Amino acid sequence: MKPWAGVGEAYAASYASLCAGTGDALLSALGAPGGRRLLDIGSGTGELADRFRRARWDVTGCEPEPTMRAVSERQHPRIRVVAGALPELPFTSAAFEAVTANFVLNHVPDPRASAREIARIAVSGAPLAASIWVRSPSWFWMDIVARAGIVASSGERLPADKDFARTSEGFAAMLADGGWQGARVEELSWTWRAVPSVLWASAEGGVASAGMLYRGLGREDRAQFRGAFDEVCAEHAVEGLVLLEHTAAVAVGRAL
Q1: What is the pTM of this model?
Q2: Quick one: which of 16, 20, 141, 214 has the fewest CB in 10 Å?
């Protein structure tokens, strides 16, 4: 199964709200909209793209996963969404006056080529903004897997010549290699106050690495996984919510 395949509805019900947490930082980085053309790459179910639209940007979304596009078109019908994925996008050079890629460059097969593609489709001097996770709730899911006695694969890594350090410094260096001008990176931390049912929707729906792992389990292991999930949620819940701290690296640069 391809990563993120078929997870549009589950993502919309879970991680979409978390990933939209960079919205203020991205809007601030882009400057005054003035009806300028903005491309949101990896627009998912459309939450950020619609926020940009409401801030008076002329927004186009770009998303490879059909179920994500379907949710976006239903929930945010005023956003035009085009099928496409980095590192090759279906747009002419200098087609946009701003480009965003929120939690996208940590998933692509060639980050530097993808960074160059982002710069290619932007007019000279246009703001480019992107984010990656430097701290995600992976510890939460790893604890669940360990308690359930499940052996999880370490996951696929990019070849050494394609990968980059998933730190603010590593992110900035990769973007500079990809042709971003004056790229600066700042870390943004916040707490996701997640309802346990929302977290479970992400796992059951196959979202991210934990969801893909759960989808591949047999009946008995799924029951063990669910039991461990309930235990960990109970231990970390405050007034019925699971408090998960996150840190994103938010990068801002310019097209040449």
Answers
A1: 0.94
A2: 20
The answer to whether the beta carbons of residues 6 and 67 sit under 8 Å apart is yes
Distance of CA 55 to the CA centre of its chain: 21
Q: Are 132 and 158 in contact (CB under 8 A)?
A: no
* Residue tagged 């996963």 (tokens): 65
Topology adopted by domain 8-136+158-191+246-254:
Rossmann fold (3.40.50)
Rounded Cα distance between 22 and 16, Å, is: 11
Per-residue pLDDT tens for 210-251?
999 999 999 999 999 999 999 999 999 999 999 999 999 999
Reference 101, options 26, 153, 191, 204; nearest CA is 26
The answer to whether residues 35 and 58 touch, using CB atoms and an 8 Å cutoff, is yes
Pairing state of beta strands 58-62 and 37-41? Answer: parallel
Q: Is the pLDDT of residue 76 over 70?
A: yes
Beta strands in the chain (DSSP E): 37-41, 58-62, 80-82, 98-102, 127-135, 181-194, 237-238, 241-254
Please name the residues in contact with 30: beta carbons below 8 A apart, sequence gap of 6 or more: 38, 52, 57, 98, 100, 127, 129
Do you know the residue count of the chain?
256
Residue 93 CA to chain centroid, in angstroms?
A: 24
